[in-house]
Amino acid sequence: MVLQQETSKLNGRCVLITGGTTGIGREIAFEIAAFGANVLIVGRDEQHLDDTLRESSRANLTIKGVLADLSTPEGIKKVFEEVDKQFNGQLDVVINNAALAYQSATEGNYQEWKEVVETNLLAYIACTNEAVKRMEKPKSGHIIYIGSMSADVREQGSSVYVATKAGIQGFSESLRKEVNEKGILVTVIEPGAVDTDMQPQSTDEKKSATEDHQMLQASDIAQAVIYALTQAERCDVVEIRLRPRLQLI
After folding, report:
1. What is the domain class of 4-242 according to CATH?
2. Sequence ranges of the domains in the chain
3. Residues in a beta bridge with 67
4. Percent residues over pLDDT 70 in the chain
């Protein structure tokens, strides 16, 4: 468990989370808001967004939401207009998490691949650009990327998805060298298999895999995010890899 004096660093911080209405992003939003952060989540499904905001309200958490398609310039603009409105120009943390699953490049068509690349990679780049603009002046901020161990494992049958996650890995490593001197931290978190809607198995199969230590829970990733955000200023958490204990690939 993260120590209380460490999590107090989250109190009052302004946090943007993309893909914050389901799975990992939703869990991160709830966990961070529980420590007093002001959270703005982005989703592209209205029902998921409404459900998340309703649940957060019942839990007395400070979470706001914006409906936007991050694969478009208009969606990016809408999100950061809402950031400035909700946070009065302050932005302490951006957690880039929104992603679409996809399989092999031998399947599908150009428009499908384009949407995946624009959502999984280009949106991360665009959100980073907007975040840095707001973090440069105060010379502080933290940008977190939720990647995947697929970037290294590069499993068969997921070449399109792997391409985007490998892109995030390379982008974050290079970006860190560009913005660290501006006081901005960059962390990439690469989970293995996680029990979310992105996994194709049934609910019972995923529950069994979690119990058998072959799959992580979204809360495990949220704890990794909190760890990265609550370290001393002298620490730079560059990369975290989380793998289920018995995941073989």
Report:
1. alpha beta
2. 4-242
3. 43
4. 89
